[in-house]
Design brief:
mainly alpha; 235 residues; 70% helix
Length: 235
């Protein structure tokens, strides 16, 4: 057998393993869809766990194919098929109980997620200015020689400042003082806007932990519900 033939055979074996891993992901996703359709909460949880395990198995499967090679094309074609499966609209069916699966949990998680998003939105402009000021303050401190020299072994060593004339130094010191005051003001304004609930008023992460749901599971359930077509309008 020639070297080329050996390489082709090895590549085919690797492709076969990759396609099996992708097929397993497809099979597990169909099991999840069936569990959602049936409204079986325990089956949904088990299927989601199986989907996660299949996904990790696929990630661990070697697939170092040359870009554009037949094996590479076949791999992406298989991935496109599973992507289409996971995003296709779900035809309306009065027997489909997917919208009811974990409904209370999904609603509580969604409320916590929306509240956290709203809190972040409330202080988004403040956060942008804080990020800008943080960079300006560090730059001015560096110019004035107020930052430790990273080349020194001593943590408390201060590097020599840049050679600045007196007028420039006074200007930089004034700018630094102004930016530091503004930073403190904005930090206090941010805390006041958020209130006691802070950035996560309904404890989004705690809600997820409470229900035993991880992020991928929540997104899978939510995605299924979004893909469900609405009931036909009554005439």
């Amino acid at each position: 057998m020639t070297k080329t033939a050996e390489t082709t055979q090895a590549e085919q074996m690797q492709l076969d393993a990759v396609l099996r891993a992708i097929q397993t992901m497809s099979d597990k996703h169909r099991e999840f869809e069936a569990a959602m359709h049936a409204g079986d909460e325990q089956a949904v949880r088990a299927a989601l766990q199986a989907c996660s395990e299949a996904s990790h198995a696929w990630i661990r499967t070697p697939s170092d194919f040359e870009d554009g090679s037949p094996a590479d094309v076949a791999r992406y074609a298989a991935l496109d098929e599973i992507d289409a499966l996971a995003t296709a609209p779900i035809p309306w069916d009065p027997e489909d109980r997917g919208a009811l699966v974990l409904a209370a949990e999904v609603a509580e998680i969604a409320a916590a997620s929306d509240a956290m998003g709203a809190a972040y939105g409330l202080v988004a402009e403040i956060d942008e200015e804080l990020e800008y000021l943080d960079g300006e303050i560090e730059l001015l401190q560096d110019m004035l020689g107020l930052l430790a020299d990273e080349d020194e072994d001593c943590e408390d060593c201060i590097r020599e400042p840049d050679e600045l004339d007196d007028e420039t130094r006074v200007e930089y010191e004034a700018r630094l003082a102004r930016d530091e005051r503004r930073f403190v003001e904005l930090t206090m304004e941010r805390a006041a806007k958020l209130g006691a609930g802070g950035e996560d008023p309904l404890n989004y992460w705690g809600v997820l932990a409470k229900h035993g749901l991880m992020i991928p599971e929540w997104h899978a359930i939510h995605s299924y519900q979004q893909r469900m077509q609405q009931a036909p309008a009554s005439v």
